[in-house]
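Case study 2.
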Amino acid sequence: MRAIYHPDQAGHDPSFFLVKGRVERSKDSPDRVEHLLAGLAQLGLPVEMPQDFGMGPIAAVHSPEYLQYFTSAYDRW
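Prediction:
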């Protein structure tokens, strides 16, 4: 099994998400990341840093408009 993790992922801390239009409390938190990493360590599974493949693979399957939306949505929100 390969475990891929980048420290930036610890910043993923949403307070909610939507399920069929309803607001639900999110289970994702930096604490959860720490527990998962500790579990991997107990199993002796190494954690690898992800490779940066740039935008090429993403642009190969998504339109420029879609990419523009995602690169600007957070600031516009």
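The radius of gyration is 16 Å.
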